[in-house]
Amino acid sequence: MYQYNWSVIPQNMDVFIDGALKTLEISAIAILLAIPIGIIFGLGRISKNKVILFISSTYVEIIRGVPLLVLLMWIFYVLGQVFRLGSYWGSIVGLAIFAGAFIAEIVRTGIQAVPKGQMEAARSLGMSHTKAMTHIILPQAFRRVLPPLASQFIMLIKDSSLVSIIAATDLTLNAKNLVATSFRSIEVWTFVALIYFIMTFSLSLIIRYFEKRLLKSEA
Amino acid sequence: MKKWLAAILMISFLVIAGCSNDSGGGVSTENSTIQKVLKEKKLVIGMSPGYFPFDMKDPNGDFVGYDVDTANALGAALGKDIKVEFKQFTFDGLIPALNTGEVDMVFAGMTIRGDRALAVSFANPYFQTGQAVMVPGSDTTTKTWQELDVKGNKIAVGIGTTGALLAKDVFKNAQILDFEEFPSAAAAMAQGEADAVVYDEPAIAVWKLRNGDSIKQLEGLISTENLGIALKKNDFETIQWVNSFLDSYLGSPTELASREKWFETSDWLSEVVEE
User: Fold this and answer.
1) CA A72, A172, A192: angle at the middle one, nearest 5?
2) What distance in Å separates residue B265's CA from the closest CA in chain A?
3) Domain limits of chain B?
4) In terms of pTM, does the model score above 0.90?
């Protein structure tokens, strides 16, 4: 029978905290990179320019069709042949590219959700397409995009648990090493699941608070 | 709603905690793995392919290697109708799998260590080796592992292996990179992500056979180690039986042939896959 010994948790609290901070760090940098990527390709998806449309659609479809694990391996072992990023930056770039594709879709649907009447009214007022986009359409799209964008960040934190496969230090890798040296798999993995939950749940509470404030400001 | 959630969580925790069992002293054969295997006519072996030439897989997905030969011989010694089944894990997942009963025995070229022996029981050693260091063939200057211990260098190891534990202990300035198993670590070194790999000597020796001059094995072993079969903790009947089996198997013609095939020739190299 498995002998429980929960003392491994408080004895290694620094390992858990270090891992959690590293996970948040990697996820935060990745999402900051993913947002501009998503905006560019999201706009590209609704571009009138056939070339831009093709490139953006291809990017989004391919990245959404490849599992994140495989993408990370590809960046590390395949791209690494010509352009070495290392474990840390390879993870961040991989996560950013991955999230960027999903954010592109969020941006696209956000823009397309703005009523058509807005663009028609703007154009009839004499605004150019670009001016209409920047002053009328995009600001409205922005508010629609924030909630799904926030959940994308939360998803990224969970997805980041895969980066240990390319030797990047994060909460999951620290957990694996701790299990390997202490053999306390049940205790460690239960606690790690709890940490991930605390991180994502706290974030979702914060986001909900800001969403409420955003709704108030719109009324 | 929230009260129900809290209640469910509390109950689950209590159930899990309650499942822990303080089995006192005394030897019993009730939980004996051997009895279970004889009854079910099936022996499940936990293995982590990637440790050449002990644990590998061929292109059909079958497990091959020195450990596989030993495990098959062990199953045959238990009974002609015992079916030997192999399950694949990452190296650091093997001991947890043994402890939860997912596998009956672990054959993984596993080094016998005091801390591991607190979690599992080992049969007598069946092989003696040590940790070696591998560098790229392009590295013509490094002669000893100590020279590698400079800031900025990256040493690739396998999670949970004695190589990882040793590297983290002796390398003070270089950075240690953890990989799931040996081939990933070797691939990382091949493309410059790591400057060296620390792993059991046989794996590196075989890798050299396979890759020729693109890699170099540094002279000497950093440590000496005994390899053993991992069994469920304090499962005395099984430990005793496996030791008797090893006494009969090691040095026998079958074992000598297996040892010669996997360690002294390399014809089989073309028939295994890198995991």
Assistant:
1) 145
2) 30
3) 32-128+225-271, 131-217
4) no
